[in-house]
Design goal:
The protein is 68% helix and 0% strand. It has 205 residues and is mainly alpha-helical. The protein has a single domain, classed as Hypothetical protein af1432 (Orthogonal Bundle), CATH 1.10.3210.10. Helix 2 packs parallel to helix 4, helix 3 crosses helix 9 and helix 4 crosses helix 9. The longest helix is centred in the C-terminal third of the chain and has 19 residues. It is globular and about 45 Å long.
Length: 205
């Protein structure tokens, strides 16, 4: 008898999975960059859990997996940024300069765009959220691809309680993020919006 397939939130991209997926598609320097990002993110998020009690790093690895496997966008900068996109929020040691020094200025740029001060509360938090959306709106398409892949992974985890208010999360996504896809008219963003819309229908049915 075959073992049941793991639940989506139990899936993650191992280092071997990552190498198998990209080794023939990137040059040695690019491969080293992506693996370095994998190791840094794994270390920073080592003890962090999500609301569904799974390791936080699994989420980051799945974002990279979406970009590589589903979007077929094997770009070393983008995959590295996908893995690193929360390290500035969750580390008191790593800075944008550290990312720039160890990886590249462009990777650091993507990570900075996708970083916000999550410790703020009340009016300051609302202002920070608004500035974050505005910054992302005028950022490169690569920033948007990483962000939409991150939202897509979260959509797939809503049924497991990863967000305390899943319907509020959907509302914010449609209000703040979908207009960026409309403006960009980019096929990869459109594909992710379609998938998130499908998941929403399933949750609301």
């Amino acid at each position: 008898m075959e073992s049941p397939l793991p639940l989506y939130n139990q899936i993650f991209f191992t280092r071997k999975d990552l190498i198998d997926a990209i080794a023939t598609k990137l040059d040695p320097v690019e491969l080293t960059t992506v693996l370095g990002a994998y190791e840094m993110a794994s270390s920073v998020h080592e003890y962090q859990l999500r609301n569904d009690s799974t390791p936080y790093f699994w989420h980051l690895s799945r974002v990279a997996r979406i970009i590589i496997h589903e979007l077929e966008y094997v770009n070393a900068d983008v995959v590295s940024a996908a893995l690193l996109h929360d390290v500035l929020e969750d580390s008191d040691i790593i800075t944008a300069e550290v990312i720039k020094y160890n990886f590249s200025a462009y990777i650091a740029y993507i990570v900075e765009v996708l970083t916000k001060n999550i410790r703020l509360l009340g009016v300051q938090r609302e202002q920070e959220d608004n500035e974050y959306i505005e910054r992302l709106r005028y950022s490169s398409i690569d920033c948007k691809i990483v962000k939409f892949a991150e939202r897509l992974d979260n959509y797939r985890c809503l049924e497991f309680g990863v967000k305390r208010n899943p319907f509020g999360y959907i509302e914010v996504t449609e209000r703040d993020y979908y207009p960026m896809a409309d403006e960009a008219r980019h096929v990869l963003l459109d594909r992710m919006v379609e998938e998130m819309t499908r998941i929403k229908r399933k949750l609301y049915s």
